[in-house]
Each structure stands twice: as C-alpha cells, then as structure tokens.
Amino acid sequence: MTAIETTEEAPPEQARELAPATIGTAFSSIQAFEGAQRMAKLLASSDLVPAQYKNNIPNSIIALEMAQRLDMNPLMVMQNLYMVHNRPAWSSQFLIACVNGCGRFSSLHYELTGAEGSDDRTCIAWAYDKANKEKLLSPPVSIRIAKAEGWYGRTGSKWQTMPELMLRYRAATFFARTYAPELTMGMAAKEEVEDIAELHEVQASVVNDSAPSSKAQAVLKKIQERRMATPAEEREADKAIAAQAEHEEQAKATEPATPKPTEPPKAYVTLSREYDTREKMVEECLKEVGLPPMFEIQWQALDAIGLAKLDRAASKLTKKKSE
Known about the structure:
Blueprint: H1 12-18, H2 30-44, H3 57-70, H4 74-80, E1 81-84, E2 87-90, H5 92-101, E3 109-113, E4 122-128, E5 135-137, E6 141-142, H6 143-148, H7 158-161, H8 163-179, H9 181-184, H10 190-207, H11 215-226, H12 231-254, H13 266-275, H14 279-288, H15 304-322
Antiparallel strand pairs: 1-2, 3-4, 4-5, 4-6
Helix pairs in contact: 2-3, 3-4, 5-8, 10-11, 13-15, 14-15
C-alpha cells in the first residue's frame, strides 16, 4: 500500500515570516539598518574583535557596512581597519590581499632595482590585468623618496629597520590606489598614515601659530633637517637635542626668581586716581596700548611688558589732560 503524502500551504502571514529577509548595506533602508544593529551588537560583544569595536555598536555598524560593500567577512575587516591619529586606515597586508583576491588581477609581484641598503633601492609592484593581459605597474618607491617625503626620518620609523618590507608595502598601496581605488574606499594604508601624520600635525600647528620662533616651528625645522640624515647622524642629532634641553632645564632651575613688587607702580596709581572722574579717557588710553579696562587690570600679575604698557597709558593720560 502506497502512502499518499499531502502538503499544506502555509498561510500568507506565516509565509512572509518564513521568507528570507533581503538586507542590503547597513544604510540602504530602515530594515537594513535594524538588521545591521542586531549583527553589530553580536559582534561588539565578542572577545575576538579589536578594542575599538568592543562594546561599541556604532563602530561595529560602520565596519559591518564596509564589509558588506567589499563583500568580505566582517571580522576580517575589523581586524585590518585601524584608527591612526583619528583617521581610519587599512593594513598594507589587507590591501595586498584585496588586490590578489578581487579576481581582476594576477597576484602582485615586486620588481626591485638598485643596491640593497642604498638610497637608489627602488621597488615597483606589478600584476597582469586578467581582462586584457596588460602588465600594470605601480609608481616607483625608493629609499630616496622615503627620505625626501619625511617617512624615513620619523621617530620609530620601520623604514630604518625593515626597508625592504616597507618598499613592498608602499608600492602595493600605490598599486591598489591607482588601479583599484574601490578596494581602498578612499582610505590610505596604516603605515602610510603613520609616516605622514607627524609632519602634517606639526605643519598645521605652525600655520595656526603666529610666533615665528614657536616650539612647533622649531620641531618642524628639526624634522626637515633630519629628512636626509642617515640613522647614525640622526642618533647624534637626537643626543645633541636632548643635551641642549637638559642644559636649558638646569639653567632654568638655577635662575633666581624675580621678586614680586609689594607696592603698585606709579603708573597704576596715576590711572586709578583719574578713573572715577575721567573713566572714558582712561579706558581710551588703556585701549591704545593694548590693555583691558582699568577694573580688569591686576598689577600684581603684570609682567615687564604689561608694566611698560601701563606706563605708556599713564603718559598718554597725562598728555591728554594737558591738552
């Protein structure tokens, strides 16, 4: 006897519940965003994610969005996306893996020329375009360029200890940015951001600093002087800078303290006498020499420059009274 199997159709409401939800990128719709939040919460609670994503759902959602756009595993993206000086950046190994795995190119190869250890040591990353068999070359990267750009002389730079590896990493980064910018999503490599961040921050502080002899200006000058220095010369320069700083600290410590005046200066007394009867005139004199209104001046806190301004204000007031 043959058993007859019967099937029942699920009600429309149940069928909709059983249907798989199609979720695009995290910010493509409200439904996608809600789904991304649930996934991000799970990832953020995992011990396998880096510290910047641990219990941080917003960061996890952004990493998830990038993973969806790159069609990659979210954990892989999280493990290779770094924050360097408040800028997101990929690891160079990740960019190399993206180029090798995207299917558009053959595996990356490296062509090195010039003597190892010399400034002429140059690396070019290349691969074949699978669509037309064309050989694609990255812009050349050399030790000379690294020194000229300030990468080599940076404090703690890997260019000094691992130049061969850094040449390959930088050439591969240039290749990815030149021929597959969609893989980098407009972001630089971690090593690249580390190389340029220090110099850019100092330059920005110099632009915002009006004093030509500021500390930022001095630091920038030292960085520029050290761009072409060899490691031995750089170590000697660091020793000289440290010795100079120590000498200045010792001189400052032994410098006698300037005694504070116990009585207000004559100019302050002159202006105070006239304040009640000639308030407008006093304030005009103070304004002309760059001092605040009289009621804001505390003569005990004025330095030598402030006291000199106070004298000029008193002189101007005396002159105006005699006119």
